[in-house]
Every structure is written in structure tokens, then in C-alpha cells.
Amino acid sequence: MKPVLRWAGSKRQILSKLTGLAPDIGGRYIEPFCGSACLFLALNPSRALLGDVNPHLVSAYGALRAAPDAIAGVLKGWDVNKETYLHLRGLPASADAAFNAAKFLYLNRYCFNGVYRENRKGQFNVPYGGYRTGPLPGVDELRQFSARLQSAELYCGDFTRAVRDANASDFIYLDPPYYYGSVRNRGEYGWNAFSDDDVERLVEEVRAADERGVRILISYNQAHTLRKALPGWRLTYAPVRRSVAGFSKGRKSVREYQLRNYD
Description:
- The longest helix has 14 residues.
- The chain is globular and about 55 Å long.
- The protein is of the alpha/beta class.
- Strand 4, helix 10 and strand 5 form a beta-alpha-beta unit.
- The chain starts with 8 loop residues before the first helix and ends with a strand.
- It is 38% helix and 15% strand.
């Protein structure tokens, strides 16, 4: 099924590559940077642990798991236009979890290029992107996604929690925010969601998990750097079209690398 979030447009382009690299999962599927959860949906594991540091994302997933019909009902009441988008973007969080989840889905679907970005105050600040991305997911799609989430434990927090909890029967997929040099952190994924300093922590945690026999697959644009820190791991790549640039000349095909510790 299609993901209900738009964050992983590039990820959908290489989904067949990722599913081909994934091993048989005897234990849990673990994804500490769950984003749109494309690989989770494609593999459809019997048990999963999905986490992220973004509380709005995790709360939305929790509401989708519990009340997809209520969320669909809220979405039906909103027109697709810039005025509605800006109105919803400016609203504070509500006590109604279904309303918050519906707002999260709406803003994600109609923001510019599906980018999630916050300012230093933690406020979503992406401009309106138009309605060319297609309609919002309907009640049937939300119910299907809810059904998939019934097998998943959700948590909000740092990636270390999930990696340290993994054992030899589990499979971890890590897709941290990518490094882009001097323009790296402008609040994407939530302010300070994953910084350059966190890469060293990531390496330390996956080394320990590797020693416990956990199978690990990492997607990262600086995988050659990771490979130096993780000798013996297998490196592959797939071409992907990046479309988050504001101008067409910045939208180009690049390589997305995958690093894994199993055959």
C-alpha cells in the first residue's frame, strides 16, 4: 500500500532495491527514523518497532492506529487551498488527537515538496506547495494503514533506544537525515533532529548491535564515510532523483547508498 505521508518521494524510487536487500525477519522489524515508513509497509512484518524524535509524527501514527475513521472525518471538512493551509499551519496543538493527526497529514500533503521543517521554536514553517500532489488519503487507505500499525510498537525518542533493544532475530533499517554540508540543518525533520555529531553515536550503536548479531541496513548519502568506520560491511547504491530543491536546476539524480552487515 502507499504511505500516507509524502516525505519519502525519493525513497519510493528505490523501494524495490531496499526490499531486495532486506533479509528474512524472524523477530522484529525496527526503524528508528520511521518517516513515511515505506519499507515497513512494503515488508509488512508481523512485529515492528517504529520510532522517531518528532513528537508530531509519532502522535499522528498513534492516532491513525487508534482512530482512522475519525481522522478521515476531520479531513473531509477541509478545502484544499492556500488559505486553509495557512490557517491550519498557524493553529496550536489541540487536545483532540484525531484533529492533530488530520492537520499533520494535510500539511504534509500540501506543503512545498513534502518537506518537514521547523523553526527554532518548534513551529512548522513550510510554505504552501499547491494541490498537484493529489488528494488526501481516504478512509479506506487510512484504515489499511491503521491495520498495519496494529503490529507495531510506537515510541518517540532517540534512535539509541531502538538499536540497543534489538537482538539477533531482529532487523534494523536506519534512514537518518542526510548530510548536505553547510546547508545541512535548517530545521528539517524537526529542529536538531539529527546532526553531524550524531553520526559518531550512530556508528557506536550499530557496532554494538552488530556484535550481538543484529542484521542492519543503513541508507545514507555519506555511506563511504560510514564504511570506513564499519569495515567489512557491504556497500551498494541506487540512483535517485532529488526533488526538494526550490529550483529545477537543483533537482538532479544522485546516488543513494545502502550499507549492510549481512549477505
